[in-house]
Specification:
By secondary structure, the protein is mainly α. The protein has one domain: Up-down Bundle (Ferritin), CATH 1.20.1260.10. It is built from 8 helices and no strands. The longest helix is centred in the middle third of the chain and has 25 residues.
């Protein structure tokens, strides 16, 4: 029987192919289209529900806490790879506070690496098999698109954690997940500010289901 993250990644592959076929993204602008779709959808606060209605991913559920953690690890792998491979390609200057954006992005990268390492260790300790990092295509082409995609990825991560939290049965794991999502929310607020968006746009966050996350993040995961 397939585990949750295996089904999730399989659905991502299916969704990616559906998007490529339906929207004709194989016309030489795949990277820009895929990256821009995520950045615009979250940067402009388009509801995830609307994005989900435009797709037909298979319904997924969590069998146990290990599957929830592997779901989180799948997203943390994506976030860490984004910063690890992208930082150094552009110079970002200073933020509205006069602080180096490059320095702060490096700190965010290190946070994401810590999240990957922690989730990997916890899954292993619980007797599970941590999901491996995938291959990604984020589609940024310059500093502006990198920062826009960064904001989008962080906001999506917050909504994904909030959506999956109710499925965790172990209170200790729920507390640990809460400590991660709080940091992700700080990342999201900072990056929203950097790109000129509202850092705290609402009094309550909108949780996202795995299907909704898939509809947005799927195009970034190549294999």
């Amino acid at each position: 029987m397939q585990t949750f993250h295996e089904r999730f990644l399989e659905d991502i592959k299916t969704e990616r192919q559906r998007i490529l076929s339906r929207r004709g993204l194989l016309t030489g602008s795949l990277k820009l289209a895929a990256g821009g779709a995520l950045a615009v959808s979250l940067g402009n606060r388009i509801q995830l529900g609307a994005a989900a209605q435009d797709s037909t991913p298979a319904a997924v559920t969590f069998a146990d806490d290990i599957e929830v953690l592997n779901y989180a690890l799948t997203l943390e792998h994506l976030e860490y790879a984004f910063y690890r491979d992208g930082i150094g390609q552009f110079t970002f200057g200073t933020d509205p506070f006069g602080t180096s954006i490059d320095t702060n992005l490096a700190a965010v990268r290190d946070h994401e690496k810590a999240h990957v390492d922690t989730l990997t260790d916890v899954i292993t300790q619980l007797g599970g098999t941590p999901v491996a990092e995938a291959t990604y295509d984020f589609g940024y082409t310059d500093a502006t698109s990198f920062l826009a995609t960064s904001s989008a990825v962080e906001n999506l991560g917050v909504q994904a954690y909030d959506g999956a939290g109710a499925a965790i049965s172990n209170p200790d794991l729920l507390t640990a997940a809460g400590s991660i999502v709080a940091v992700e929310a700080r990342h999201a607020a900072y990056l929203n500010l950097v790109i000129g968006q509202e850092p705290f746009p609402a009094a309550f966050e909108t949780p996202a289901t795995p299907d909704e996350v898939l509809a947005i993040a799927g195009p970034f995961i190549v294999s």
